[in-house]
Amino acid sequence: MKKTLLSCALLTLGLSSCKDFLTVVPQTERTTANFYNTAADFNTAVVGTYATFKHAGLYGNGAGSLIWLGEVASDNTEYGTPRTTTSVAAYEIDDLNYSLANTYFRDAWLGHYQGIARANAILDHLPAVSFDAALKGQYEGEARFLRAMFYFNLVRLFGPVQLLTTEINDPYGTASIGRSPVNEVYTLIESDLQAAENTLPATITAANQGRASKWAAKALLGKVYLTEQKYALAGAKLKEIVDANVNSLMPNYADAFLLTTSFANNREVMLAVQYKGGQIGQGGNFYTQWTPFAANSPDFGFTNGPGDGVNRPTTSLIAAYPIGDARKAASIALSYTNTSGVVVAEPYPVKFRQTGIIKGESDVDYPVLRYADVLLMYAESLNEQGQTTAAAAPLNQVRTRARLANTTAATQTDMRLALEQERRVELAFESQRWFDLVRTNRFVPVMTAVGKPAQTFKMLYPIPQRETDLNKNLTQNPGY
Predict the structure, then answer these.
(1) Mean pLDDT along residues 310-314
(2) 404-448 pLDDT per residue, tens
């Protein structure tokens, strides 16, 4: 310390101040002091914010927290590996028996706030630079869209959370910030998405696939309104998408997820996490993560085994598909043939299958927003406004594509159950089920019916112990 101070004192003889010297940024390094200057800089920052989708706390390559918290914690899937000391955190989620130190809660918290920090930095620096106005508006819209998505996940997972809206460079800058009320978090989410839908492009080119369009912003805003039970606003927003006829269902359910389906032809997937194989650190491993544990089979592709056993379909989910539902075979394989030619009756997801590749190097993307979800949300918003007959039309579009007859639901209560069922099988393995059960207040009865210890307080996850230890102003959710 003394040597540093002496050096600084001597330097003042030839420099205006030691402080000025210490803040000079080498031209070969990129920091916040010299980075946010050009359109290319902001494009890099925005792409980096999208990259947060691949964080272990979000969709993280087959075993991210949202897959665990959105699927394994529901009646859709279970953990398909032996119970060992290394699988404690996973089985806590499967058993609905949560500890405060569970790594999936920690990763979800950290991953989403990492994305928020990146979005906040873009929004703070953007006003100070000048370049093409339309491009600048797009980058602002993308940052707001992404921040809204991150906060939407957080508020649904944890309830009141820290509301951070500006760049924080101090490593202890959030150490005393407490939790903001849920309504304040939703106010920011709505505001961000309302701004985003006005500045995001209506069309995404193939070169920019994976980026949000105005229709993705409208879809997410519709989902936000639906979650808040603002049914009239949700219906109106989702109707904008339906009436625009920009998006549509693929003729065959499986085609929405196939690698061979071109981006230009896939009008159903409105936003997806992008994966690219080739051993460049961007490949996906959903398929190999989800094939049966320690199993080898030509069915998986000769380079795909052994499987990891994550996210195994439950008997309850398998039974939920009606006879003749085309989505079942496109989503679940009920058995596989091992290398000895023996058929093994163990189910596994095939929705994101890509065989014949190096393990963990898939090109198959993971959908975050789909038009089928829009149609089902639109039907729900209509039904909750008492328009049950009108709600049948968008629901039946989804059922027709699945090769099923029109719904017979005639009352509001029957339609609620019909939509719950339809969302379950249509959106299986897409990290939606837990959120749906909580949103409709059906978590406790549904999970109790399959023998899980569901309790009302578990409709929110605990604040990670790491965070409450570091910040005494972060209170814990009731029940934990």
Answers:
(1) 95
(2) 999 999 999 999 999 999 999 999 999 999 999 999 999 999 999
- In the chain, domain spans: 36-200, 230-269+365-455, 286-315+329-355
- Domain 36-200 belongs to what architecture? Alpha Horseshoe (1.25)
Which pLDDT value is given to residue 302?
65
59-63, 102-106, 121-125, 459-463: least confidently modelled range:
59-63
Domain 36-200 shares a fold with domain 230-269+365-455: yes
Check whether 206 has a pLDDT greater than 50: yes
This prediction has a pTM of 0.92
Q: Which CATH class is domain 230-269+365-455?
A: mainly alpha
Mean per-residue pLDDT, 246-272: 93
Helix/strand/coil (H, E, C) string of the chain?
CHHHHHHHHHHCCCCCCHHHHHCCCCCCCCCCCCCCCCHHHHHHHHHHHHHHHHCCCCCHHHCCHHHHHHHHCCCCEECCCCCCHHHHHHHHHHHCCCCCCCHHHHHHHHHHHHHHHHHHHHHHHHHHCCCCHHHHHHHHHHHHHHHHHHHHHHHHHHCCECCCCCCCCCCCCCCCCCCECHHHHHHHHHHHHHHHHHHCCCCCCHHHCCCCCHHHHHHHHHHHHHHCCCHHHHHHHHHHHHHHCCCCCCCCHHHHCCCCCCCCCCCCEEEEECCCCCCCCCCECHHHHHCCECCCCHHHCCCCCCECCCCEECHHHHHHCCCCCHHHHHHEECCEECCCCCEECCCEECCCCCCCCCCCCECCCEEEEEHHHHHHHHHHHHHHCCCHHHHHHHHHHHHHHCCCCCCCCCCHHHHHHHHHHHHHHHCCCCCCHHHHHHHCCCHHHHHHHCCCCCCHHHHCCCCCHHHHHHCCCCCCCCCC
